């Protein structure tokens, strides 16, 4: 479980800011059809930072319902307050999810000992598996490998999503962590190489746009066919980069809207739709990839 291409799913919204549940259902069904191996619900790409707790829980519930057991659903439960993260865990643990993705606390800048205590508290509040999420570009604090190893002693902590893009982190982690500890990339640009060097999968923003290609790339890499994996990934390199020319998920939502998969490209404030130049850049890429 938790290997391959897991999409960091967007949360569709209408122009009035409400969640567009029909579009959400269509996205979930599309990912099942296209071979996505699993879904991360209400993570960073799902705008977890601006969904109130009841709405966060409802979106996770709907995604689980729409998937109907076809693929595993990981619920985002990250927060900069440990108490809030536990509340999110309590609210979603009985919905049929397969586990949690929990980000390093942002803004607070906790010490390593505080990060360990934070994740131990979250992992102890559930019987479900927990994936750690290190993304210092968002959280400021970088969770080093030694800290990961300390947290990994908890039996419910089963893996790490590393979004640093630093290949040396994978080698370092493999040397000191248990061989069964899952290590997934959270950086699409380096995700293929990450897997070819021994990573277990990618929690992918790009999979929102080309789910079939990301699934096939991951399958090739996991089977040891690194030549095929790199061949699939090479034409996607520009897309990987351009989906982040503005803060995620601004561009992915715009792309999905232009592809006819969302009724609206709306985001929750303080996020807004992309600048005209960014719209042009991603439109050209979608045309090149024959997605529009």
TrEMBL record:
<dbReference type="InterPro" id="IPR013785">
    <property type="entry name" value="Aldolase_TIM"/>
</dbReference>
<comment type="subunit">
    <text>Homotetramer; dimer of dimers.</text>
</comment>
<feature type="binding site">
    <location>
        <position position="203"/>
    </location>
    <ligand>
        <name>pyruvate</name>
    </ligand>
</feature>
<keyword id="KW-0457">Lysine biosynthesis</keyword>
<keyword id="KW-0963">Cytoplasm</keyword>
<comment type="similarity">
    <text>Belongs to the DapA family.</text>
</comment>
<comment type="pathway">
    <text>Amino-acid biosynthesis; L-lysine biosynthesis via DAP pathway; (S)-tetrahydrodipicolinate from L-aspartate: step 3/4.</text>
</comment>
<feature type="site" description="Part of a proton relay during catalysis">
    <location>
        <position position="44"/>
    </location>
</feature>
<dbReference type="InterPro" id="IPR020625">
    <property type="entry name" value="Schiff_base-form_aldolases_AS"/>
</dbReference>
<keyword id="KW-0028">Amino-acid biosynthesis</keyword>
<feature type="binding site">
    <location>
        <position position="45"/>
    </location>
    <ligand>
        <name>pyruvate</name>
    </ligand>
</feature>
<keyword id="KW-0704">Schiff base</keyword>
<dbReference type="Pfam" id="PF00701">
    <property type="entry name" value="DHDPS"/>
</dbReference>
<protein>
    <recommendedName>
        <fullName>4-hydroxy-tetrahydrodipicolinate synthase</fullName>
        <ecNumber>4.3.3.7</ecNumber>
    </recommendedName>
</protein>
<dbReference type="InterPro" id="IPR002220">
    <property type="entry name" value="DapA-like"/>
</dbReference>
<feature type="site" description="Part of a proton relay during catalysis">
    <location>
        <position position="107"/>
    </location>
</feature>
<dbReference type="InterPro" id="IPR005263">
    <property type="entry name" value="DapA"/>
</dbReference>
<dbReference type="GO" id="GO:0008840">
    <property type="term" value="F:4-hydroxy-tetrahydrodipicolinate synthase activity"/>
</dbReference>
<keyword id="KW-0220">Diaminopimelate biosynthesis</keyword>
<feature type="active site" description="Schiff-base intermediate with substrate">
    <location>
        <position position="161"/>
    </location>
</feature>
<feature type="active site" description="Proton donor/acceptor">
    <location>
        <position position="133"/>
    </location>
</feature>
<keyword id="KW-0456">Lyase</keyword>
<dbReference type="InterPro" id="IPR020624">
    <property type="entry name" value="Schiff_base-form_aldolases_CS"/>
</dbReference>
<comment type="function">
    <text>Catalyzes the condensation of (S)-aspartate-beta-semialdehyde [(S)-ASA] and pyruvate to 4-hydroxy-tetrahydrodipicolinate (HTPA).</text>
</comment>
């Amino acid at each position: 479980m938790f290997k391959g291409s897991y999409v960091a799913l967007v949360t569709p919204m209408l122009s009035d800011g409400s969640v567009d549940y029909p579009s959400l259902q269509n996205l979930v069904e599309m990912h099942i059809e296209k071979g996505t191996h699993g879904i991360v619900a209400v993570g960073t790409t799902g705008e977890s930072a601006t969904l109130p707790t009841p709405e966060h829980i409802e979106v996770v519930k709907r995604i689980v319902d729409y998937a109907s057991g076809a693929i595993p659903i990981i619920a985002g439960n990250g927060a900069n307050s440990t108490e809030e993260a536990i509340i999110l865990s309590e609210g979603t643990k009985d919905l049929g999810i397969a586990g949690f993705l929990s980000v390093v606390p942002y803004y607070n800048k906790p010490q390593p000992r505080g990060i360990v205590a934070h994740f131990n508290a979250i992992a102890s509040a559930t019987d479900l598996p927990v994936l750690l999420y290190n993304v210092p570009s968002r959280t400021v604090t970088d969770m080093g490998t030694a800290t990961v190893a300390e947290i990994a002693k908890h039996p419910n902590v089963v893996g790490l999503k590393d979004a640093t893009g630093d290949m040396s982190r994978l080698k370092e982690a493999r040397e000191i962590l248990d061989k069964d500890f899952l290590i997934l990339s959270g950086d699409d640009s380096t995700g293929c190489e990450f897997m070819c060097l021994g990573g277990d999968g990618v929690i992918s923003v790009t999979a929102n746009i080309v789910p079939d290609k990301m699934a096939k790339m991951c399958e090739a890499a996991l089977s040891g066919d690194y030549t095929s994996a790199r061949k699939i990934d090479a034409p996607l390199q520009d897309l990987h980069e351009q989906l982040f020319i503005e803060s995620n998920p601004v561009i992915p939502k715009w792309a999905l809207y232009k592809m006819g998969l969302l009724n609206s490209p709306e985001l929750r404030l303080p996020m807004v739709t992309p600048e005209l130049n960014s719209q042009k850049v991603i439109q050209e890429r979608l045309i090149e990839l024959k997605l529009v």
